[in-house]
Amino acid sequence: MKVSDKFESILKTIVWWCKPLIEKCIRNPAVIFRMDGGTCSQIVDYVSFKILAEKTGCNMLMDITWYDRYGEGKESILARPYNIDKLFELEEYRTAGKVQAWLYKVLFSYFPSDDMITKGFGVNLGTFKMPDAPCYLQGYYKYELAEIERNIGKYCSLKDKQDILDPDNMVIYEEIASCGNPIGVHVRRGDMSVEGGYWEVLPNKYFINVCEDLNKRDSVFYFFSEEPQWILDQIIPYINIQYRIVYNTAFDGYKDLYLLSRCKYQVKSQGSFGEYAYILNSREDKNMVVYDKDNPRLWKWSSKL
Q1: Assigned CATH class of 161-301
Q2: pTM for the whole thing?
């Protein structure tokens, strides 16, 4: 155990024994909602937070201190910075201070019963009864995707492209806008390809088959990935297509999300990146492709989230 970890463990014990006194000193009890994860997780958390605050009328604060640790490391593909405000104009919301968030997490974390937890999803706030304040809601409290989709426009709106993109990415945007059939392919490797990754890596053949099947005369495939060399080694040699590989660091992943959402097609990888690009896509002719292990070509259309 590190010295800092040992010190924190001792401090938590002291704080826990002082809980009755601390509760008496809280003048305006709040419900604190933790935000964590990458850009798409931030969208889910932010919109869920806003819906819940409006429906309950509670004194709610957002805890974004997770990003003090995991938002660092520019060379790391595992870095997850707080960047939702670089993509959207957000409605104002209040955040908890570092000490306040830590105390609430130690003393007032709320753990739901097993019957409230949906496998692979967490706690569905659509059927959730808010506990009394003070309370700390830690991780995977969210509304279902369809509810998030209905409310994104209510609580946040995309910034102008000039405010989102730097000059290099603006060039890619102009290419996509002028392309007759732009196909955006999200290839999630990065944190997937390291030991202990969150998801099973999708087979190479999935991406190859999709590219073969969607390739037309005016098609250009835009690959978005944190591992561009993997695409050059494992996909490009096996297909004959027009393509561009778009690479932004983890700190600029929101730019990838915006550019992917401008394509006619969103080819989904693991996680929710492709889904949110599809949600943000304003084109009437948009389409989303998802992995389907039971299909001989390993993919299918999915216009429903």
Answers
A1: alpha beta
A2: 0.90
